[in-house]
Amino acid sequence: MNAPGVLLDTGPLVALLSRDDAAHAQALRLFAACQPPLRVCEAVLAEACVLMRKVHRQGPAEVIALGRRGVFAVALSLDEHWDQVEGLLAKYADRPIALADACVIRCAEVHGEPRIMTFDADFEVYRWGRNRKFERLDLE
Question: Under a CB-based contact definition with an 8 Å cutoff, are residues 115 and 4 in contact?
């Protein structure tokens, strides 16, 4: 079992809550293999709420309920990291980087955490710290 602190990206969060998602079973296995709380940023939560609203009306509330139950904890306040996140968005401007991706990268830097639950292949390219690779849990 993965110790607490794994970084959480949008895709697995949405797949966990959406039974019709093609990756739902994989998300169930990933979450079962991780001890809470996972680390998340507010940008990931915002993306997940938007996507879950498209699934059904109560979708955003389901996202927030997972946080309330301790499945994840907000581990980065963008208010304290404007410059670094802006730098990451500029660094990866040639890729389809979203604000959530940049915030997750920054969260890895702040917490020294390489493990990430994601379905986003761009995390094979993204680096945190000086040039550290992420350890994508979906590849295990």
Answer: no
Task: Report the CATH number that the domain containing residue 118 is assigned in CATH.
Answer: 3.40.50.1010
When pLDDT is averaged across residues 119-129 and rounded to a whole number, the result is: 96
Domain housing 110? 7-139
**Is 53 a domain residue?**
yes
The angle at the Cα of 84, spanning 80 to 87, to the nearest 5 degrees, equals 150
H or E stretch at 123:
none
Over residues 91-115, the pLDDT tens digits come to 999 999 999 999 999 999 999 999 9
Residue 128 lies in a domain: yes
- DSSP, residue by residue, 53-99: HHH-TTHHHHHHHHHHTTSEEEEE-GGG-HHHHHHHHHHTTTTT--H
